[in-house]
């Protein structure tokens, strides 16, 4: 029943039914309390559910509680490892712990504690190198999140090193990692632009657009909309204003088609298009769009 409740909670999470997800996770915890007190039932399985519940707390804006829940989850994994489980269970627990540390780092980033998030991600990456196979996907995922965080912290040289390593890693192992490759090129576009490496930035932005278009077939989530906004501004500023306008208009048209023109997202994309026109010094169109947005 515990596995079923955890799976049902996950299903509800992925369909954004948070109340039902919480219900099933709580039922899982209650069931574990009635089961035989083995290390797996006492520590490992609760840690799995607690990590999932931390995600719900974050989604509800209760980030401090989410951090506390994730810390309890990690403590339970450590307690399970202290019980000296067999080799397979030890490997599973180490993977769970490292994933939990990555998620904890994300929570600290969310509240603006970037240095603590960076320290956790660097520790997690070092441990993954010790415990995972050399071609494990968890390694390149660590590289990209480290690169992104260095970018946010404006450590652009460090970000570029991590993101270049990430692309090289994905190129040498089998698998289709289109989403991750798109994100890596996206971040490298931003980093290269910040470093004044215009042609390198152009290459990475072009690669990002190609990958996103081929992968998502014209559907734009928040990540892709953010990319389209940045790429449009980049092209407008760096010799390709028509493409910049086209990208910003395309993003706005998608949002209006999906949500109408009275949402916060449509407002943001209208302002983004106005900004592109302002960069190209078409102040009349920029003004008209700004007025429309208001």
Q: Can you summarize this structure?
A:
This protein is mainly α and 294 residues long. It has helices at 2-14, 18-34, 39-59, 63-82, 87-110, 114-131, 137-152, 156-172, 178-194, 198-216, 222-237, 241-259, 264-279, 283-293.
Task: Describe the structure in your own words.
- The chain contains 14 helices and no strands.
- The protein has helices spanning 2-14, 18-34, 39-59, 63-82, 87-110, 114-131, 137-152, 156-172, 178-194, 198-216, 222-237, 241-259, 264-279, 283-293.
- The mean pLDDT is 90.
- It is globular, with a radius of gyration of 22 Å.
- The chain has 294 residues and is mostly helical.
- Helix 11 (222-237) packs antiparallel against helix 12.
Task: Summarize this structure as a short list of keywords or feature phrases.
14 helices; mainly alpha; 294 residues; 83% helix
Quaternary status of these chains?
single chain
What would you report as the Rg, rounded to the nearest angstrom? 22 Å
Count of strand segments:
0
| Strand residues, percent | under 5%
End-to-end separation:
53 Å
The global form is: globular
Separate helix tally: 14
